[in-house]
Amino acid sequence: xxxxxxxxxxxEFQTVFQKGKSAANKQFVIYTLENQGQATxxxxxxxxxxxxxxxxxxxxxxxxxxxxxxxxxxxxxxxDIIVIVRPGVEEMPLASMQGSLMHALKRAKAVKAVDIHNExxx
Length: 122
Prior knowledge:
- By secondary structure, the chain is of the alpha+beta class.
- The chain is built from four helices and four strands, in the order αβββαβαα.
- The chain has one domain: Ribosomal Protein S5, domain 2 (2-Layer Sandwich), CATH 3.30.230.10.
- Helix content is 42%, strand content 20%.
- A four-stranded mixed sheet has the order 1-2-4-3, with helices on both faces.
- α2 (54-71) links the parallel β3 (42-47) and β4.
- GO terms for molecular function: 3'-tRNA processing endoribonuclease activity; ribonuclease P activity; tRNA binding.
């Protein structure tokens, strides 16, 4: 995932939290906010201390960034997205994490509509 695809500042996170819409599944909570002023999506990741110590949280965030990079062509542009990691994700393998993330993004309507129809056919 490229640096330009990341939310970094607290103000950016707070804007998405306050003005955005949320959707969730068992592993992730997704907040989305449409932002027409940008060419690509931006994602911020939040993992609380409930996930584990700093090493565990950073490992989960690295794996999550890898999962996002694998599906970034399916994510709708012009969105600011925050992914909140729920406890239990730290034990998931990458493939399961990616599937669960894709499910949560679909629930949040952050995936391009064309890809949703193609996945149902295949």
